[in-house]
Specification:
Blueprint (H helix, E strand, L loop, with lengths): L2 E8 L8 E9 L5 E8 L8 H7 L3 H4 L5 H11 L4 E4 L2 H14 L9 E3 H8 L8 H7 L10 H20 L3 H12 L4 H14 L10 E3 L2 E3 L24 H15 L7 H15 L3 E5 L6 H16 L3 E5 L2 H18 L6 E3 L9 H10 L5 H14 L17 H8 L18 H10 L3 E5 H9 L10 E4 L5 H9 L1 E4 H11 L7 H12 L4 H30 L16 E5 L8 H32 L3 H29 L5 E7 L9 E6 L3 H9 L4 E6 L9 H7 L2 H5 L3 E5 L6 H4 E6 L12 H18 L3 E4 L3 H16 L4 E4 L7 H10 L3 E5 L16 E4 L10 H12 L4 H18 L10 E5 L3 H4 L3 H6 L5 E5 L4 H10 L5 H6 L1
Parallel strand pairs: 1-4, 4-5, 8-17, 8-18, 9-11, 9-12, 10-11, 12-17, 19-24, 19-25, 20-22, 20-23, 21-22, 23-24
Antiparallel strand pairs: 1-2, 2-3, 6-7, 13-16, 14-15, 15-16
């Protein structure tokens, strides 16, 4: 088989656009790249500037190049009897067909393969499938991205890499892939078929690397075979070893395994503080800034405590990212430096794990909602099973629709067959649970912590000692979990999985299964299922009417991003229900009645079939349908609780986005104050809880967090320790904080013309002085929009790119990556950029904070909390709004300095920090940067002077 890997550069993406460069790499029968052809093409018109910016190809490059007809005379003979390959091949193929047509050739009629499909299937865990990213991940030389010959060669090498991986798969996996595409008339299916035939002729099959079960190849053996970290009859490795001796050992090992290891005072203090809290059964609030190394600061004493006393420690993080960082970076390092074997297990919410029974069922039945995308996702997952040891969805790079696919195959308690499932010993969720049960330290997340509390502690292994990282999020997560949160699709997805149409859904599948069984009751059962269909449709119609009615009650918020979930939002008060609330209540009642009817008929049917009919395939469906019915019962009760609006201690509100209107509706019912519940569930019950974050104190005091989290009683009893660690960075030399004292102020979330003009002018001048490398944090999307276009214009001639969250497409991580890769750029961000964004080194030199990050006072939860404080004769602004804003402000400030060699400037444009009575709380809470205020016109020269005086650190000297 001979492959021709094709790539075009063009003047645009439309059919009327022209080719300006072609690249072709020929892969011969022996899988060697025998030829790379490249040529510019004269399009007969000038190249748009943005294409020149992307590709580097100028009008000068193409002015003496051959015309399309001449180039095609060279290209066409090379396309004879080849399989055409491309990266996103549809784009190049359309331009090829158009060029063939324009030059009088017959259309290309050979086979076509897309490297995107191969990459997704063969490398399901790659975080991006962009050619540049993939080339660097594979260590391929791709020296001129967006130049056709370089792209064609890189694509050819990527394709060969995929072929190598494909041919190395176990035969059973290749057969599964081939079967998957067998009913599709696709070139990918034809190609997989060929690989299968080849592999079947191979006399040597490697059967050692994988476990084979029910026609799937898996990486992992049965979890029941897993050994414990230490043998039970072995002596305790810490018997007679003091904490100081253990730490001396660890530090010696750190020095010998990490050449750049140096002890940090703050980390040493944290290790000692955590150890003291664990050994004295006390709670600890500990603020540890960036660079402290706080993961080791709590993991080292936790492991000592757990192994020495046989008392497991649970660690909880807010983000999955931090869990992954602990798994990928910190735990492997600890394995090298801790002088005895231990186990630290990651245990996530159940929905993160693949249910092998559901997956097998889905692919065997070809139960695909969007066949083209679902086939690729299923193929990805069949290959992933040969690689994964955890079955955790975070390892998969799923397409947009892949999330819907995952929902149908994720593990969940309602549809688990437990020990009677043939997959039980292979089950990823039960593996994770078993590992957690035998672990010294269990790492979970805040969500799972609260799900466990609600499930009467049936989910997590029991624990008396708890470390809460990213603890400034604990109260917010507690509210969401101890209250209720539901979306429009919560009900729709459940209904669709039960019944999409007469062929698709669990009920129609069961109907077909029962009809085939020939059971004497199958006609009666089929008739009951037929009665359920119209009821499901009726629920869907009523739900749409109710959602439309509720969306119609929502006013638009002035400071939100278009498409943001909270763009439309409204608080609902028990004492003042909206005008047409009784109409909504009537629709909810109708829903309640119909859902009850479905549940009554459905439960009775499931019970009957289960008792009378013995068949694994039907059993599996009955389990899933029973689970879906339980979900429906939960949704029915949640909705009733919400519509009743009768709990004064709960704050109710609705949110939606303008983009998807009623389909983006979200329902919230959150306790106004969770401090009492946190106290009762955690601080009264557990022997020791350590809460840590970079931002826990306000004005060097922990009082705000003590109040919010329900720790006051522990403090009064002397059971609460607090510690604010010194920063490992020298902020006074590393950061200059500038306040332009004559800057105009703003009322509300939108700036007037004078404010916007001043801001754009100041940001533009500063960006030129810092050569881009600037992050601007806004509190309102409207204001970001006001600044975006004029700033872009002001910086156009300086070759500084402006990127805007919500304006330029891409997720937060994509925008951050673009910002880091660009030579000179300014990134404008709102809410999600204030924390969790890590841009170390020279990519970020200047951070501008446009306004102090106060939450909008009309946010439902803030409003309700303020009312409660007023009833207690407290000042809501000073007790709640200011501390919340200070913590967010500290998070924003923390974006600038990520390492000891970072040096930069923070500009605060909000003069309230020096003019208002509460401004000092913000400045006093920062870790000691150099602070100066001055008239606006003196700011840029001062910034330039500061940046030139950057102390050259040891790290930079060795770089040069």
């Amino acid at each position: 088989m001979k492959f021709a890997v094709l790539d075009f550069e063009t003047t645009g993406t439309q059919s009327a656009d022209d080719i300006i460069q072609v690249g072709l790499a020929i892969i011969d029968h022996d899988n060697s790249i025998s030829r790379v052809y490249g040529s510019y093409v004269n399009p007969g018109r000038s190249i748009p500037p943005f294409i020149t910016g992307l590709t580097g190809i100028t009008d000068d490059d193409v002015k003496d190049a051959p015309a399309l007809e001449e180039m095609m005379m060279e290209l066409v003979p090379m396309l004879d009897d080849v399989v055409l390959v491309g990266h996103n091949v549809a784009f190049d193929f359309n331009f090829l067909q158009s060029a063939l047509d324009r030059c009088g050739y017959l259309p290309f009629s050979g086979r076509i393969l897309d490297t995107m499909d191969f990459l997704k299937i063969m490398f399901p865990s790659l975080s991006s499938y962009q050619l540049g990213f993939v080339s660097s991940e594979f260590g391929l030389a791709h020296d001129r991205p967006h130049q056709a010959d370089s792209d064609a060669l890189a694509t050819a090498e990527v394709f060969l890499k995929c072929l190598g991986e494909l041919q190395a798969l176990p035969l059973i996996t290749i057969q599964r892939l081939s079967d998957l595409f067998a009913e599709e008339d696709s070139d990918l299916g034809w190609f997989l078929d060929g690989i299968r035939e080849e592999k079947e002729l191979d006399p040597i099959q490697d059967l050692e690397k994988h476990q084979f079960f029910r026609q799937l190849a898996l990486k992992v053996e049965d979890w029941t075979e897993l050994a414990t970290p230490r043998r039970e009859d072995d002596p305790n490795p810490l018997s007679g070893v003091s904490f100081e001796e253990y730490m001396d050992d660890v530090r010696d090992n750190l020095r010998s395994s990490l050449s750049q290891y140096e002890e940090r005072e703050a980390q040493t203090q944290m290790i000692e503080g955590v150890n003291q809290a664990l050994s004295q059964d006390k709670h600890l609030l500990i603020e540890a800034g960036t660079g402290t190394g706080k993961s080791l600061g709590y993991l080292l004493p936790s492991l000592y405590h757990s192994v020495k006393y046989g008392q497991r420690v649970t660690v909880s993080t807010h983000t999955i990212n931090l869990q992954e960082q602990l798994r990928e970076r910190d735990i492997p390092m600890l394995t090298k430096v801790i002088p005895f074997p231990f186990r630290a297990a990651i245990f996530k919410g159940r929905g993160h794990y693949l249910c092998l029974r559901k997956f097998e069922h889905k692919i065997n039945r070809r139960d695909f909602a969007t066949p083209k995308e679902d086939l690729i996702t299923a193929a990805q997952m069949i290959v992933w099973l040969t690689l994964t040891e955890t079955g955790d969805d975070e390892e998969l790079n799923l397409s947009n629709r892949g999330g819907d696919f995952w929902e149908t195959v994720a593990s969940d308690s309602e549809s688990c067959l437990g020990r009677s499932c043939p997959w039980f010993r292979k089950c990823y969720y039960h593996r994770a649970r078993h590992e957690a049960g035998t672990a010294d330290v269990v790492i979970t997340n805040h969500s799972k912590l609260f799900t466990d509390v609600k499930a009467s502690h049936q989910l997590l292994p029991s624990y008396e000692h708890l470390v809460i990282d990213e603890a400034h999020h604990l109260e917010e997560v507690a509210g969401k979990h101890l209250g209720m949160h539901m979306k429009y699709f919560t009900l729709v997805h459940t209904l669709t999985r039960l019944f999409k149409d007469s062929k698709n859904g669990q009920l129609p599948s069961l109907r077909q299964q029962l009809a085939k069984s020939g059971h004497e009751k199958s006609t009666e059962w089929a008739s009951t299922i037929d009665q359920l269909y119209p009821l499901v449709l009726e629920v869907k119609e009523t739900w749409d009417l109710l959602s439309d009615k509720l969306f119609g009650m929502l006013p638009e918020r002035s400071d939100a991003t278009p498409g943001e979930t909270g763009q439309f939002s409204s608080r609902l008060k028990p004492s003042a229900k909206p005008a047409k609330w009784d109409q909504a209540a009537a629709l909810e009642n109708q829903l309640y009645v119909t859902l009850s009817e479905i549940l009554r008929k459905g439960d009775k049917l499931m019970l009957d079939v289960k008792e009378e009919h013995d068949d694994y395939a039907a059993d599996s469906l009955i389990t899933d349908i029973t689970g879906l019915l339980k979900d429906l019962a939960g949704i029915r009760e949640n909705l009733r609780f919400f519509i009743r609006l009768d709990d004064e201690t709960t704050v109710y509100w609705l949110e939606a986005s303008g983009q998807f209107r009623s389909k983006s509706l979200q329902f919230y019912a959150v306790p106004v104050d969770v401090s009492r519940q946190l106290k009762e569930m955690f601080f009264d019950k557990k022997r020791s809880i350590i809460l840590t974050s970079a931002t826990l104190s306000v004005d060097k005091s922990f009082q705000y967090m003590t109040d919010q989290l329900g720790l006051q009683e522990a403090a009064d009893q002397g059971r609460l320790m607090t510690s604010q660690l010194p920063s490992p960075f020298n902020y006074r030399d590393q950061v200059l904080l500038v306040i332009p004292r004559d800057f105009p102020s703003v009322k509300g979330s939108v700036g007037d013309a004078h404010f916007v003009e001043m801001l754009v002018s100041s940001l533009g001048a500063t960006a030129q002085a810092t050569r881009g490398r600037m992050l601007v944090l806004f509190t309102s999307y409207r204001m970001l929009r006001q600044v975006y276009e004029p700033l872009k214009e002001a910086l156009a001639s300086s070759d500084i790119t402006v990127l805007g969250q919500g304006v330029d497409s891409g997720s937060r991580s994509k925008l951050t990556r673009r910002f880091q890769e660009a030579k000179a750029s300014v990134l404008l961000g709102t809410s999600s950029f204030w924390e969790g964004v890590d841009i170390p080194g020279k990519a970020l030199t200047c951070l501008a904070i446009v306004r102090l990050p106060f939450q909008p006072p009309n946010h439902p939860l803030l409003e309700a909390k303020s009312e409660l404080l007023q009833q207690q004769k407290k000042n809501p602004f000073m007790k709640l709004s200011v501390p919340q804003a200070v913590i967010r402000f500290k998070q924003g400030f923390g974006r600038l300095v990520r390492t000891a060699s970072d040096h930069g400037v923070v500009i605060v444009y909000d003069t309230r920090v020096i003019e208002s009575y509460y401004g000092k709380h913000f400045l006093y809470s920062l870790p000691g940067p150099k602070m100066e205020h001055m008239p606006s016109e003196q700011m840029v020269p001062r910034i330039a002077e500061w940046l030139q005086s950057a102390p050259e650190t040891e790290a930079q000297r060795t770089d040069t």
